What does this fold into?
Amino acid sequence: MTRNRYCGRLGISVPAVERFVDDPRMSLLKLMTLALLEHGEPLALEEIADRLLDAGVSAPSGDMAYSLRKAWHGLPPVIKEPDGTMGLDLESWDLDHLVFELGLKDEEKAVEGPARPPAPEMPGDEVRLSEEEIREALRKPGLSHVRTVAAVLDLYGAALGFEQVKEAVERLSGQDWRPRRPFVRNRFFTESKDGLLAPGTEQTELRMLRRVVRAAAGEVWARKAQQEHQERQFAAYREAAQQRQRREAAEAAGLRKALVWALPREGRPAAVSIVDLRGRQIRSFEGASVGAASDALKEFDVVYGLDVRATVAVLGLDVLDFRLFELRPPRKSIRLNRAGKKLHVTPELVITSTTGIGHPLADPVKVAQYAADGDTAKLVRRIESDVKALFAYYRYGVLHGHVRLRWGFIDEVFGVDWALPDDESLHRVLRRAMEQGAPVDLVTGSAPGWSDPWSRSSRWRIVELRFHDAFVEQDGVRQRVLLDEIQALRLAAPP
It folds into this structure.
């Protein structure tokens, strides 16, 4: 199997652009993504344009590079690398969806569910009907009252009174049976003046009756067998999916995760802080020791940060050696009114909205002054304050699957894909607490402190869990909690 750096990370074979040129699902952005997947590394925009032209793609504007720039316009999964080339965000939802949509994922071994049961073998027309056959036939609408009576008479092989027939039909069908009386004349049975119903003697009609009843019963049996087979198949698929989730969670649990932040934000950093996300430990590097930050970051597999690709690159590291998650908000601006007034969505605004932390990131002017004065103590204090705010912001995004923007009348959420398979989500923890009847420790309002994150927690039992809120109870007092206000939670340790 041939793979390059992009496709190897995604677990897919290298796609050929030509294969998808005439696919009606393909947009210019998707073809741009495919060209990058095919190459396996970042490319200049002009190189992507040349590859698409060679593959037979036409440019709407007549200028492929211009058309690509307009089609991209900052949209994922294509990103601009620190050196100006175009690359792929390998952790993007959009890339996962495209790989799935185009069937690029290497085929996994099909789940082998239970074998389909064989069709039931029906007896010949010379054999009298059985209770099971009549019971199943009565489940299928359409069996006339005359044939129902004839089937019961064939079952017993003797003349019966109407009440006996009615009792048998209700016992087999499990419901009331009220046929029209008297029955129309037929060749299946006869009815005497005293109401006794006797089986007919016409063998041809009797064989036809048995065939019709068994056909109806066979349809019901086949439908039930199909439904049972599907349920067993779905159970096999669910088990396979759960096994895959457990395997992915186990693999993710072994990954080393870090959050990195460098100051100043542009140019060569004067200080770098790295948070070990599993151990909640901060290591800071400043001045002459900044170079050691590169070696420290190599200890990790997954790296989070604001402008994380630029930070990794400025430290002299290859961005493709890590799984990188960008913490920058996915929106740059929000339109406020019809006049076109916009709100610029900055990282500081979203971090404060999400965590309640005021001034979460350092003032660039003050950082430049600290660096110019060689005041490393203030620089380190400031950068460690920043990474603590970024950590709280990251933890909220992992817990909720989104971050918040609150400004004036605006209260919106932006979905984020920062969680790995071993990360616990808010709803999962709350559901488990309800199932186990276990209390939870909740921190609401602003983000928990760094040194003692549970100092402001309160202990509650989850009474009811809904989509946006939950009802909790403590010492007989019940109250409503908005889920978006929860900053941290954990199952309470047993007393």
The chain has a mean pLDDT of 90. The first strand starts at residue 78 and ends at 80. Residues 16 and 38 are 6 Å apart (CA to CA).
